[in-house]
């Protein structure tokens, strides 16, 4: 918690998030009807005020009809406009005070607009899914929508019994009454709002690997007609998990699930303990295996170790890109250096206007950021050497497990693993715009 008295918490998305308080738990109950795309929700947020008394604060929530709003059980003054639920408690909340906010909302959920198109709740032909990165979470629930504000979640979804509901975390209960079923999931690990994943669809559930061997429980939720292709495409995910635990440290959550939507998606999407793929990512020929590695790696880099704000997104995407190269190297494919050389050749012919640290909102999802981020990690590997590099990675994910980090935190951490100064390397790869030479 920063303790700032300003509500602005992210330079790229000043309308999202409020740094004057933090949420430590969300309890959300949804009722969803896929046909009319009708959502009704109630939520309780358990929060803590910052270092200054809290006379007002805001949550992010899209254009729903809001019903009851309570703070500590009392009705506050509130307004709900432009995706912000502004709340003024009946009495100011003292600095450091714990408080609860109860909200009821209803309507037809839809994606929120962004420079990258609609984000968040997406109605499918038969069901729905949530893909919120970076600012889509308010499309379906009220939240303090900034990556640094991580909380535990309990999510309950009531929907017609023909549908399977998948959310990140452990399935606590599944209760059927008449024609509807209520699914309750618990995610105890601190989770950013954009990483709360949800999918509702007609799925067959299968297990990957052998959980009896004491590894991470890995499940998949797949349309029946895609199961045979899926079985080949995802056959090596358990081996991926084993490798990444060796290289990055223990898997940071209780379980890992993948969902294949019965629709095409532009790109797969990571969520906490969960990754969402489209039918187009299942071809029966392992054509998207690098993406399977990429999304799995985000469980360490981005989900458990989370960026303080979006200026540091290279710490998510650079490491996930490098994990693709490491999987290739360790599974009989091209080495990381060969992949890095190919990425470097590609970047030399493209515009030189991207800086990894603070790339600006316009370029934060540019493919060049992913490639150059992977190259920066490769340069650090070359500078540290094999043993020190992987020890550095494992220590990074251990020290900051379920925490919040910045580029400065990472550069000071990595510098401890070599006697040679890394300032010139950091300057060239992270802070300057021109592409440095390929690390050799």
- The arrangement of helices and strands along the chain is EEEEEEEEEEEEEEEEHHEEEHEHHHHEHH
CATH topology of the largest domain: Immunoglobulin-like
User: Taking strands numbered 1, 2, ... along the chain, how are they ordered across the largest sheet?
Assistant: 4-7-2-1-10-13-12
Low-confidence segments, given as residue ranges, are: 1-8
Distance between the termini: 41 Å
Considering DSSP H and I runs of 4 or more, what fraction of the residues is helical?
10-25%
Secondary structural class: alpha+beta
In angstroms, what is the radius of gyration?
Answer: 22 Å
Overall tally of domains: 3
Largest pleated sheet: 7 strands, mixed
- Which CATH class of the largest domain applies here? Mainly Beta
Q: Which characteristics define this entry?
A:
single chain, 440 residues, alpha+beta, Immunoglobulin-like, Zincin-like, Neutral Protease, domain 2, 3 domains, seven-stranded mixed sheet, five-stranded mixed sheet, 9 helices, 25% helix, globular, disordered N terminus
């Amino acid at each position: 918690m920063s303790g700032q008295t300003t509500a602005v918490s992210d330079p790229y998305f000043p309308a999202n998030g409020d740094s004057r308080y933090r949420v430590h738990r969300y309890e959300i109950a949804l009722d969803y009807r896929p046909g009319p795309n009708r959502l009704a929700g109630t939520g309780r947020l358990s929060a803590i005020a910052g270092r200054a008394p809290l006379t007002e604060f805001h949550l992010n929530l899209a254009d729903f009809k809001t019903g009851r709003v309570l703070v500590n059980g009392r009705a506050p003054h509130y307004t709900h406009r432009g995706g912000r639920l502004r709340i003024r408690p009946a009495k100011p909340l003292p600095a450091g005070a714990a408080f609860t906010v109860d909200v009821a909302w209803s309507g037809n959920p839809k994606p929120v607009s962004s420079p990258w198109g609609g984000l968040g709740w997406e109605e499918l032909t038969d069901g729905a899914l949530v893909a919120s990165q970076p600012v889509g979470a308010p499309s379906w629930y009220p939240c303090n929508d900034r990556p640094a504000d991580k909380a535990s979640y309990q999510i309950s979804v009531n929907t017609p019994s023909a549908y399977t509901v998948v959310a990140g975390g452990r399935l606590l209960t599944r209760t059927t009454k008449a024609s509807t079923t209520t699914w309750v999931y618990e995610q105890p690990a601190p989770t950013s709002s954009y990483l709360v994943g949800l999918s509702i669809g007609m799925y067959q559930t299968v297990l990957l690997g052998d959980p009896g061997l004491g590894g991470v429980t890995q499940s998949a939720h797949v349309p029946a007609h895609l199961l045979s292709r899926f079985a080949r495409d995802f056959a090596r995910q358990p081996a991926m998990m084993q490798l990444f635990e060796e290289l990055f440290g223990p898997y940071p959550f209780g379980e890992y699930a993948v969902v294949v939507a019965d629709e095409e998606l532009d790109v797969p999407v990571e969520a906490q303990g969960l990754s969402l793929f489209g039918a187009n990512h299942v071809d029966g020929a392992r054509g998207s295996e690098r993406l399977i590695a990429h999304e799995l790696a985000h469980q360490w880099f981005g989900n458990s170790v989370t960026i303080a704000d979006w200026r540091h997104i290279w710490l998510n995407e650079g490491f996930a890109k490098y994990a693709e190269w490491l999987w290739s190297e360790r599974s009989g494919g091209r080495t990381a250096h060969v992949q890095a050389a190919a990425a470097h050749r590609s970047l030399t012919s493209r515009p030189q206007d991207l800086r990894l640290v603070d790339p600006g909102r316009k370029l934060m999802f540019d493919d060049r950021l992913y490639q150059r981020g992977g190259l920066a990690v490769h340069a650090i590997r070359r500078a540290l050497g094999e043993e020190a590099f992987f020890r550095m990675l494992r220590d990074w994910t251990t020290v900051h497990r379920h925490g919040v980090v910045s580029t400065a935190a990472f550069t000071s951490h990595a510098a401890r693993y070599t006697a040679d100064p890394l300032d010139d390397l950091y300057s060239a790869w992270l802070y300057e715009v021109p592409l440095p030479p390929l690390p050799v």
